[in-house]
Design a protein that fits this description.
Blueprint lengths: L3 H10 L15 H14 L4 H9 L10 H25 L5 H10 L1 H31 L3 H5 L1 H16 L3 H32 L25 H14 L8 H4 L8 H29 L8 H4 L9 H9 L4 H17 L1 H17 L17 H17 L4 H5 L3 H22 L6 H65 L12 E6 L5 H12 L4 E8 L2 H14 L5 E5 L6 H13 L5 E10 L11 H10 L5 E9 L8 H10 L12
Parallel strand pairs: 1-2, 1-4, 2-3, 4-5
Helix pairs in contact: 2-9, 2-12, 2-15, 2-16, 3-10, 4-10, 4-12, 4-20, 5-6, 5-19, 6-8, 6-15, 6-16, 6-17, 6-19, 6-20, 8-17, 9-12, 9-15, 10-20, 14-15, 16-17, 19-20, 23-24
């Protein structure tokens, strides 16, 4: 009968793939776009809102500056997209920003980028899922009232989908992503046609709301307002998150990998810029207002819809299906944007594990050729963040873009070093011109992303960015510690030129609890190893039981002496450890091999009833120098699908009586 756990795993994850099917999981551009670009595309659903939220602090008049803020964000996005197109051509192996920084700036810079990206991927899941649930809550109040629980549930579902494999999850996510593109472009085109083509006056639901400035801040040429504009720009730069994911996922593309990745990156940039500009323009034309603190700036009881929900309600005012379609696909794309992180985090984790900066378990692929351990790690930490911040998008997003701009900046500086290193060795004039052009693009990218990073740190440090910085520092130190540990272990295990010292003698000790088949098998196996001495050892925790065991031992005429050690405090492990130590005290070059009979069971709950003392004894013996531990298995009925009748006959010949033994403890 199949194991219920295995059956459940197959239902959720699917049948395992052979390693030679890895090439079947490679992605064409039409599937790679929704997988790797969903995060960046989805950011247009909340980045305009973040711009308006920040500007609202200065009152309704400040919304007029939103196109200028959006224009600055678009300029940065164009630069970053152009810069990363150079990255994917120069470093197609999938290391992305981590590889670029490590190769050109050194391991420390690479680790800094890696720690920033790991934090960014976790925040991508937390922010995307929270934003998606919040957006859906605009149409379904129940979801809005229970958004934290709903967000965690969505993370669990995404984890299960991604454990099925990259290509399979890509097909599932492709349709919603393309529906989102169609819905948003349709919203922008139809809204623009109604406003500019038909000359209609459209008013958003919040257009007539009176927005009060906070802290007496008002529009004007003041230092406070200038700082507010900078903060609005840094919030709007959330639209750039996810651009780096394609450079980390180049190996997942079908050949020619670099070309396909660069094309996908260009499509991503065009779509994101179109959507961002379109939403900001429509918000301005419809008088849409989106405030940071509705209760204080508008009034108690004011219920604020998201930017996309307000635009959809006014543009599709005579077509309710369009409104609900925009709400549904926006919520869905925000949730599925987390899939970008579910593809980027495990791959980066695998590379870091290969470089011995993370546990090696993160390097191996699971049944479906996905990096299953990395997927589970990501889901766990994202769920922790969602619970800690109660799925509040505005609070989470303050932590968000620090990490991505750290990786942007270091990556572009690394690319500058890359071109400077290769240019002197290149003689082909055509290639040299191309490399110089790439160097200029990456140089502009380094200056611009570095400037944005400084602005983000200044404007968002006290609003939560310090948490991201602290998390990066902790992860950096952990990775350094893991690498130091692996290096230390490697040095300790490296063979030397000295010939290995053979043990002088081998003392075999068989642990005995009863005279039954497992004990007989352990004795026979110990004899087969031909040790210098052979001892059968039992622990006296009950005098009557021990006398019964000795009598049975003598009755069977076994040719191995039974040694009994006393245990006044009824312990089993300590007397055995002390006895084994005593065998080596006089002659350190001797080794002791301890044979432990163990039951092999077929049901999970049977493990709770057997082998507990054996596990404790093995755990203690493994720390003793010169002691080898050998498990001698005995398969019970529940584990043996074959030869059950033979095992029955064997067991019936041996009476089972004596003291309670450690296998059943």
């Amino acid at each position: 009968m199949a194991n219920p756990t295995s059956v459940l795993k197959r239902l959720l994850v699917g049948r395992p793939f052979r390693s030679d099917r890895l090439h079947h999981t490679l992605l064409p551009k039409r599937i790679a776009l929704p997988i790797f670009a969903s995060d960046a595309l989805s950011s247009v659903a909340y980045a305009p809102g973040e711009i308006l939220l920040t500007l609202s602090i200065a009152g309704a008049a400040a919304f007029a500056y939103s196109p200028w803020v959006a224009a600055a964000v678009v300029l940065v996005m164009l630069t970053v997209v152009a810069s990363y197109r150079q990255n994917v051509h120069a470093y197609p192996s999938g290391g992305g920003d981590y590889e670029v920084a490590t190769v050109n700036l050194g391991p420390r810079a690479g680790l800094g980028v890696a720690s920033a990206l790991l934090v960014d991927y976790v925040l991508t899941v937390a922010v995307s899922v929270s934003a998606g649930v919040e957006n859906l809550g605009s149409a379904i109040p129940f979801i809005g009232e229970h958004k934290m629980g709903m967000a965690v549930t969505v993370v669990v579902l995404l984890t299960a989908l991604n454990l099925r494999g990259v290509r399979e999850s890509g097909f599932l996510f492709a349709v919603p992503t393309y529906l989102f593109m169609i819905a948003m472009v349709g919203l922008i085109l139809w809204g623009s046609w109604r406003i500019f083509g038909l000359g209609e006056t459209l008013r958003a639901p919040s257009a007539d709301v009176v927005v009060k400035p906070e802290h007496g801040l008002a529009v004007g040429a003041t230092l406070g307002f200038a700082f507010l504009m900078v903060r609005a720009f840094s919030s709007g730069c959330a639209a750039l998150t996810g651009v780096e994911a394609i450079s980390n996922g180049v190996p997942a593309f079908k050949p020619p990998k670099s070309k396909n990745a660069a094309t996908t990156l260009l499509l991503l940039g065009v779509l994101s810029i179109t959507m961002l500009v379109g939403i900001v323009m429509l918000s301005l034309k419809t008088g849409l207002q989106y405030v940071e603190n509705p209760a204080l700036q508008v009034g108690a009881g004011y219920v604020q819809q998201t930017v996309t929900a307000q635009l959809a309600s006014v543009i599709f005012d005579h077509f309710p299906v369009g409104f609900y379609l925009v709400i549904a696909v926006t919520a869905l794309i925000l949730v599925l944007a987390a899939n970008t992180a579910f593809n980027g985090f495990p791959v980066l984790g695998s590379i870091l594990a290969q470089d011995r900066y993370l546990p090696r378990q993160l390097h191996t692929r699971g049944d479906r050729l996905a990096f299953s351990n990395g997927i589970v790690f990501l889901a766990f930490f994202a769920a922790v963040l969602i619970v800690a911040f109660r799925a509040e998008t505005t609070r989470l997003i303050q932590l968000y873009i620090v990490g991505v701009f750290v990786s942007f900046t270091l990556s572009q500086i690394g690319m500058l070093r890359h071109w400077n290193r290769h240019l002197p060795r290149e003689r082909d004039p055509v290639v040299r011109r191309r490399m110089k052009r790439s160097r200029v693009i990456n140089g502009i990218g380094a200056v611009m992303t570095g400037f944005v990073l400084i602005l983000v740190l200044v404007t968002k440090f006290t609003h939560g960015a310090w948490i991201s910085i602290a998390a990066m520092a902790v992860i950096y130190l952990i990775m350094v510690g893991i690498r130091r540990h692996y290096d230390h272990v490697a040095r300790e295990l490296t063979p030397t030129d000295e010939a290995p010292v053979l043990p002088s003698r081998n003392h075999a000790v068989v642990l005995v609890s009863k005279v039954h088949l497992p004990t007989m098998r352990a004795l026979a196996y110990a004899k087969a190893t031909r040790p210098d001495t052979l001892t059968a050892l039992t622990v006296n925790v009950d005098s009557n039981d021990t006398r019964g065991l000795q009598a049975e031992w003598d009755r069977r005429g076994l040719d191995v002496a039974l040694t009994v050690v006393d245990s006044p405090y009824r312990e089993i492990s300590r007397p055995i450890i002390n006895y084994v130590k005593s065998l080596r005290q006089s002659k350190p070059r001797d080794v002791v091999t301890v044979f432990i009979p163990e039951y092999v069971v077929g049901k999970w709950w049977e493990n709770l009833l057997h082998n507990q003392s054996a596990l404790r004894i093995k755990g203690r013996l493994l720390f003793e120098q010169g002691v080898m531990v050998t498990s001698v298995p005995w398969q019970l009925h529940s584990s043996a699908g074959k030869d059950l009748e033979r095992i029955d006959r064997d067991l019936s010949r041996v009476p089972a009586r004596g003291p309670r033994h450690f296998e059943e403890d």
